Amino acid sequence: CGAILDPETLYQRSSTDGALFPEKLSALGVVPGVKPHLKVYSLPGQGGATVMQGLDSLAARCEEYAEAGAKFAKWRSPLEIDVTAGQPSSLTIQTNMDDLARYALICQDNGLMPIVEPDISLKGCHDLETAVMVNVQVQSALYKAMLDHGVFMEGATLKPNIVNPGLDCEKSYTVEEIAKANIDVLNRCFPCAMKGANFLSGGQSLADASARLSMMNQMKGTSPWNLSFSWSAALQLPLLDLARETKTLCLDEMSALYLEELKIAGAAARGEYTPKGNEGAHVPKQKVVVNA
Q1: Measured by CB atoms within 10 angstroms of the end CB, which terminus of the chain is less buried, N or C?
Q2: Count of alpha carbons within 13 Å of 44, Cβ hemisphere only?
Q3: Which string of DSSP letters, residue by residue, matches 118-135?
């Protein structure tokens, strides 16, 4: 497994023996990586659509990160679906995907394996069919840009969002329908040269993300990719909630909960997690009726 660190964490040291964090992680069998992107800023004329900063100094920083012990990197390009505003527009998609491709090439030139993360937000009222269309557009543009830039595809990994209807979508979808939508997107455009996709959670609960990932693995058939997870909030937020409830840094209890969460996520990555109730389904928010 791997751990994605902030750049400053690469240079922090253990309080016990003074070893750098990447050394401690490597000794435990955990591959250290880094987030080299900086901040998002608005694209002029695109109604609030954004692009990530950080390419100008990326080569020099990647060289430093590799020397500090990082083995891979991850760059996130956040996008939102707003049908009324026409977003993501062709310009928004191309700008972000070209940047992801340039980042990937710079990483490989400096000895880091790049994770490319086109992250389409859950925000919005779009239906699942629209989500499939936009995800195909975005991922197709990404792979074309990577090939045009000369990225070694076998040496890169995808971290995509799980294809979902918008949070405010008023149409219901089963976990099977959502899983099929994700497999459809991969089958339509994901290169066989890239060996796997590690999905982000993107605001989904652990139960919903696990149910959807597990169903994808059950439905993928002879598709050649390994479908797994790269979840932060879905795993971390329950731990923070536990600490908040107990008002202590209860490390033993948090460790036990974390292991249980990883068992659930691991089962999902093998297609062995069984959803409970409506887990993984999209259920529209209940409308509140106010009596006149």
Answers
A1: C
A2: 0
A3: EEE-S-S---HHHHHHHH
Q: How many other C-beta atoms are found inside a 10 Å radius of the C-beta of residue 279?
A: 18
Cis omega (within 30 of 0) on the bond before 118? no
Of 100, 103, 181, 183, nearest in space to 142 by CA: 100
Amino acid of residue 64: E
The position carrying tokens 């002029």 is: 44
CA atoms within 13 A on the CB side of 16: 3
Residue 120: alpha-carbon gap to chain centroid: 9
**pLDDT on residue 290:** 42
| CB atoms closer than 10 angstroms to residue 137 | 15
Residue in 80, 117, 261, 279 annotated catalytic: 117
Q: Which amino acid, residue 115?
A: I
Is 23 an active-site residue?
Answer: no
* CA dist list (Å): 22 to 18, 25, 252: 12, 5, 24
Phi, psi (rounded to 5 degrees) for 144: -60, -45
What is the predicted pLDDT for the residue at 286?
Answer: 63
What's the half-sphere exposure (Cβ side, CA atoms, 13 Å) at 10?
Answer: 24
pTM greater than 0.85: yes
pLDDT of residue 292 exceeding 50, the answer is: no
Q: Is 263 a catalytic residue?
A: no
